[in-house]
Amino acid sequence: MGAFAYVAPSSVAEALAVLDEHASLGKRAQVLAGGTDVLVQMRTVDTQPRTLVDIKGVAETNRVDIGATETFIGAAIPSAVLNDNAELKALFPGVIESADLIGSTQIQGRASIGGNLCNSSPAGDTIPALIASSGVCVIAARGGNREVPVEDFVSGVGTNVLEPNEFLIGIKFPNPAPGTADAYLRFIPRTEMDIAVVGAGVSVTIDENGTCTAARVAIGAVAPTVLLVTRASDALVGTQLDDTALEAAGVACTEAASPISDKRGTVEYRRKVVAVLCRRATAIARDRAKLRVRTKVR
Amino acid sequence: MSKVQITSSINGESVEFLCEPQQSLMEILREELGRMGTKEGCATGDCGACSVLVDSRLVCSCLILAVEAEGKEITTIEGIAGEDGLHPIQQQFLEHAALQCGICTPGFIVATKALLDRNPDPDEETIRYWLAGNLCRCTGYDKIIRAVQGAAKELAHQA
Q1: Cβ B21–A52 below 8 Å, yes or no?
Q2: A105 shares contact with chain B (CB less than 8 Å)
Q3: pLDDT greater than 60 at residue B24
Q4: Is the Cβ pair A40, B63 closer than 8 Å?
Q5: Please, what is the end-to-end C-alpha distance for chain A in angstroms?
Q6: Last residue of a domain, one of A174, A208, A242
Q7: Which of A8, B95, B96, B142 is at 20 to 30 A from A46, Cα to Cα?
């Protein structure tokens, strides 16, 4: 077996070269951002040697770029830094609150959205929120960046579409149209620092009459991967987002869910709670959207 | 195994050390550098006993590699007290008897320093959420909260 090694490339090209070299030699490399999953797993479940490729020195992975039509969030930015960014919080409150729910203050100082996504847990808190806000993964690859919608990124429990010689640079989002807002809720049996039993991320757009013109609903911890529930979105579009519409969206989430029973909750419980969280998150997103109908956030 | 040479600032002093690529900052602080004030509780980021500041940001030193400390400014519990004696946070922990066995105390004090540097007048809820990543199995937390409130008052008084 090889030995542990650490490299800290300072550019996308340099990082790709390291990953490519390892892939072609059949040597193991693992990308490191905040390390709050990688280092724990390296000390417990999989202690085999590897080269840790620390991408925090790659400028793009630490960049927040709020443009005229798009916003880019670097993959390696710690949640605590995102949470200090008032402009980002105003644009995507659901995304930032999902990142803010993960772990203690200490974990927040290191944990990143990109890491949460690449860890690819069914219960990853940021994933439903990223999907709801139409996040697109920007992946560094030989021959140029490629882009994958977040809902297509995770391929199974702990797996994703990244090739061994690729890494996630960041996530880009279309800026919210007027009347658009997002929200994320999760259920845990304590007040904080736990793994989601169920999570729900919702983004809605409403027009001046309060009619919903677009919606995205994503649910977490109720299937092997986070699900974009188009039937829940369909139940919301064209309505006033009243109780009847919210109820129908919740039912669509219950129907889409295929959870397991584990120590956090049973199948029946998760199927019930996912409807509740869908309704509540939609109501929060709706109330936020109402404040933005006439004022474009950016 | 080839070791890596790292230069960091630890409590304001430039320190060079050798480490293996997979070693945590906590291991190096304790085993190579003799800074035994940083405690090992869980080594998986759950308990906060190993809390340090890296470039003023509160982190668990068990979840940062020592090699990542290159060029960084680290503050450990040993860097909290001033030349004239205990820091007001430390003094208040003593006065409120906010410790029993003491293993969690350095982590609590470092985390409290990070909180009060950022928010000199936190309410109780803010304090409890901020310190939720620091586990204490002795005190039941109330005395710790009182100590933090006492420290905030004391620091405001001094300012």
Answers
A1: yes
A2: yes
A3: yes
A4: yes
A5: 53
A6: A174
A7: A8
User: ipTM greater than 0.90, yes or no?
Assistant: yes
Measured between beta carbons, the chain B residues lying within 8 angstroms of A35 are: 63-65, 68
Please check the confidence at residue A255 and state whether its pLDDT lies above 80: yes
Q: What is the chain B residue with the closest CA to A104?
A: B133
What is the C-alpha to C-alpha distance for residues A236 and A230, in angstroms, rounded to an integer? 10
On chain A, the residues whose CB falls within 8 A of the CB of B63 are: 34-36, 39-40, 106-107, 110
Task: Please judge whether B63 and A110 are an interchain contact, meaning their C-beta atoms are less than 8 angstroms apart.
Answer: yes
Locate the chain B residue with the closest alpha carbon to A103: B133
**Which CATH architecture is the domain B4-79 placed in?**
Roll (3.10)
Structural domain harbouring A20: 5-174
Residue A257's CATH number: 3.30.390.50
Cα separation of B132 and A246, whole Å? 34
Contact residues on chain A for B4, CB-CB shorter than 8 A: 6
* DSSP bridge partners of B10: B13, B74
Considering the domain B88-158, what is its CATH architecture? Answer: Orthogonal Bundle (1.10)
Residue A295 resides in a domain: no
A4 to chain B, minimum CA–CA distance in Å? 6
Q: State whether A55 and A23 are in the same domain.
A: yes
A80 and A200 share one domain? no
Please report the number of interchain residue pairs, chain A to chain B, with beta-carbon separation below 8 angstroms: 87
Contact B57 A80 (CB under 8 A): yes
**Are residue A18 and residue A92 in the same domain, yes or no?**
yes
Long-range contacts at A250-255 (CB < 8 A, ≥ 24 apart): A250/A274, A250/A275, A250/A276, A250/A278, A250/A279, A251/A275, A252/A217, A252/A278, A253/A200, A253/A217, A253/A219, A253/A222, A253/A229, A253/A278, A255/A231
